[in-house]
Structures are given as C-alpha cells and as structure tokens.
Write a structure and sequence with these properties.
By secondary structure, the chain is of the alpha/beta class. It is 42% helix and 18% strand. The strands form two sheets. The chain has a seven-stranded parallel β-sheet, with helices on both faces. The structure holds 2-hydroxyethylsulfonic acid (8X3). The site of 2-hydroxyethylsulfonic acid has 6 residues, from loops. It comes from Mycolicibacter minnesotensis.
Length: 255
C-alpha cells in the first residue's frame, strides 16, 4: 500500500548505501513507507531511491551540519517521519588495546556512537510529532560481548546501545517505540571495511558457515515496524545458527 500527501509515513535509514541499510530501505519501501536513504555514497543511494521511489540524501552522520540538512530534507517531503533506522556504523581493525590505532578508535566512536546521537537528536522531535514513532538502532552482539582485539568496536557498540536504551526511559509517555537489533555475523561489507579492503581476510570471517544475510536482518526490522503502536520489541539478538558467540562458531571446514 502506498500513501501520499500528509498521510505518508516517512522512514529514514542511515548507512543505506549497502548491506543491512540498503536491504532495510527496500523492505520498508515495500511496506509503503517513503524511505529517505541517507549515506555518504551518492551514486548508490540515488540508484536505490530511484528504484524504491524514495529520496536520497547524501549524509555523513558524523557531521552535525550534514545531519541538520538531512532533517531539513525530511521537512520538504509531505508526510511525517515515523521511523528512524540508525544503521550507519562499523568496525575498523582488530588490534589489541596495547596496539590500539587511535584513528580507528576515533572513527568507530564517531560513526557508531556520535553518529547515532546526531541523527537521533535531529529527528526525535519529528518522530514524537508523528504520533507513532519508532527508533531502530542496529548495534551488534559486540554491544553485549567483548573479545580480544575488539575493544575499539565493542566499546563503541556498548556505548551506542547504552545511548539507545537510555531513550526508553527518557521518552516514556511519548509515542515513540525503541528497538535495538543486535546482529552477529552478517555477510555484508562489514568485514571488508574492518580489514581495510582485504578481501581474503574478510571472506575468512564467514568461511565454513552460513552467515546471516542483510535481508535476514531487514525482514526482522520490517516486522518490528509493522507492529501496532503499543508493541515495543525492546532488544532483538540475531545470530546465524552456526554462531554461539562473537568468538565461537561451528565451521564445516576450518579457516
Ligand atoms: C559484528 C558481529 O559476530 O561479526 O557486528 O563480530 S560479529
């Protein structure tokens, strides 16, 4: 069902140029949302928005001015912003604390934590005003676990989760639902980014098992978004059957 004019429900998805963000944009568009696809890679989101009848807004979530422009772009679309999917983020490196790469740490904290802060803060008034808002924040099992070499990423994901969960109390009494999605292994560009484009190393992460796909996660977000206003799916952990924890997986052949 598509809606138009002031009845139109708008869903803003960050990190929409690939992976979970792109798949979520497709699922929400199929549910009738006008999707605002936000990401840095202009060509990718333009093609996606074209395909799903949405709007592409080039946004770097770490830049408050760019995020303010994203909020203004939403004002120019008829309808109300009722869904925000905080999906932009990622990991860089797998160094020990002793060997920590400060640039990697800064990037992880800027994108995952401050990015979520900037976008959520900018869009919250609109989500509340919609009368039936939803904030989905895509964290990770790294928000629940720690592992050797993962401190930069796990600390950022723990912080992003804490920020998101704090809103549950702060928004109590307001018409906004809050859902944290914490995925385990999902076959996206995640590992390629983490290992700076090293394809062999990235593929090794998923070797010998069946990881989740971006669509697996997007379909769950679509389920969350399609619940009635009184139903809040608080926190959802999604792992492949072959993964018991961040460091423990079953592989049919070893890496
Ligand atoms: C990443 C989760 O299991 O690939 O967010 O380390 S995992």
């Amino acid at each position: 069902m598509t809606t138009s004019g002031h009845d139109q429900r708008i869903a803003v998805v960050t990190g929409a140029s690939s992976g979970i963000g792109e798949a979520t944009a497709r699922v929400l568009a199929a549910q009738g949302f006008h999707v605002v696809a936000a990401a840095r890679r202009a060509d990718r989101i333009a093609a996606l928005a074209d395909e799903i009848g949405g709007t592409a807004v080039v946004t770097d979530v770490t830049d408050p001015d760019a995020v303010a422009a994203l909020a203004e772009a939403c004002d120019r679309i008829p309808g109300s912003v009722s869904v925000l999917v905080n999906n932009a983020g990622g990991a860089k490196g797998l160094a020990s604390v002793e060997q920590a790469d400060l640039e990697h740490w800064r990037w992880m904290w800027e994108t995952n934590v401050l990015g979520t802060l900037h976008v959520t803060r900018a869009l919250l008034p609109k989500l509340v005003a919609s009368g039936d808002g939803l904030v989905v924040t895509v964290t990770s099992i790294a928000a629940l676990e720690i592992y050797d070499g993962g401190a930069g990423y796990t600390s950022a994901k723990h912080a992003q989760s804490a920020l998101h969960r704090t809103l549950r109390g702060e928004l109590l009494g307001k018409p906004v639902r809050l859902t944290e999605i914490a995925p385990g292994m999902v076959d996206t560009e995640f590992s390629l980014v983490r290992f700076d484009g090293d394809r062999e190393r990235a593929d090794g992460v998923y070797h010998g098992l069946t990881p989740l796909t971006a669509t697996d996660i997007a379909e769950v977000i679509g389920f969350v978004a399609s619940r009635p206003p009184h139903v809040d799916l608080d926190q959802i952990v999604i792992r492949p059957r072959d993964q018991a924890s961040a460091t423990r997986a079953h592989r049919v052949e070893p890496r």
